[in-house]
Amino acid sequence: MLSKYSGLQITIHWLVFLLVVVAYCAMEFRGFFPRSDRPLINMVHVSCGIAILVLMVARLLVRLKYPAPLITPKPKAMMTGLAHLGHLVITLLFIALPIVGLLMMWNRGNNWFAFGIMMPHASEANFDLVDTLKSWHVTLATLGYYVIGLHAAAALAHHYVWKDDTLRRMMPGKRR
């Protein structure tokens, strides 16, 4: 069995990471831009979200073909269980978050753009639903900070504390 994820899996992982950084930065730093640039910032955010959704679904499909490589040395069963739970949370979060965002944009009932293309929208706005979806979107995005932080901390702990190859399995480069 290989000691690393496939090149496709590694590419998807780091591409999702970069898109998440850009999506979060677009929202966190939009206040530094003139109000006239807000539609562009929002389009960047939405476009990243759609790309993340597509890549996360692709990642699940690729995972069916390429199983996770074994960790050396093998971690305790509890650690493996926690890792599976963590990956499940990340996967569900970064699928649900864009879906909630897309539903929010649809239900605003006005023009919105992704990838420079005008997207379809509901013929009538449903502002009560939009407010609810926005609240969920913000809550999930906030949860994302903690989940990403735990994921990164766990990868670093595997590398520096438990000294296994968990982190190296997802790093770009030659496979052994």
From TrEMBL:
Keywords: Cell membrane, Electron transport, Heme, Iron, Membrane, Metal-binding, Transmembrane, Transmembrane helix, Transport. Its cofactor is heme b. It is found in: Cell membrane. InterPro entries: Cyt_b561_bac/Ni-Hgenase, Cytochrome_b561_oxidase, Di-haem_cyt_TM. Its main location: membrane. It is a multi-pass membrane protein. One of its GO terms (cellular component) is plasma membrane. The keyword RNA-binding does not apply. GO terms for biological process: respiratory electron transport chain. The chain crosses the membrane at residues 12-33, 39-62, 82-106, 143-162. Belongs to the cytochrome b561 family. This is Cytochrome b561. The lineage of its organism: Bacteria, Pseudomonadati, Pseudomonadota, Gammaproteobacteria, Enterobacterales. The gene is cybB.
